[in-house]
Amino acid sequence: MNASEFLGSRMAELRRKRNMTQAKLASIVKKSTSAVAMWETGKRDPDSQMIIELSSIFDVPTDYLLGRTNDPDDRLKYSARNENYRKIERFARKVSNEDLEKAVKILEAAFEHAFNDDDDI
Fold it and tell me: Pfam families, from UniProt (predicted)?
């Protein structure tokens, strides 16, 4: 199964789980029923904006639609992780390089202690 067919099969699966017809989905996304049918059969791909919109409609991460994860609830995991990365980035912008190096050493020690991991992180 190629990537287009995979995306289409995920879309069809999610649409059916919600008891939604192709016509209803087409109406929601303001596209033709034949466009939805072509997406679901892998004959055409929705553009990136449409993939984002579909992910919102089906309440799954885009990575689930694209086959990068098999967990439709991964969005919560990724969003929490991304928020933590943003916090680290904000901290890094506010401190000197010297303080940042100290913070990295503290994090490395904490990870090593918490996970008993002697490998580089």
Answer: HTH_3 (PF01381)
Would you say the C-alpha torsion 16, 21, 22, 27 has a positive or negative sign?
Answer: negative
Cβ-proximal residues to 8 (8 Å cutoff; 6+ apart), any chain: 39, 40, 41, 42
Query: For the whole prediction, is pTM greater than 0.70?
Result: no
- pLDDT tens for 75-119 read 555 566 667 777 777 787 788 888 888 988 998 888 888 877 555
Taking phi over 0 as left and psi of -120 to 50 as alpha, with beta for the rest, 96 belongs to beta
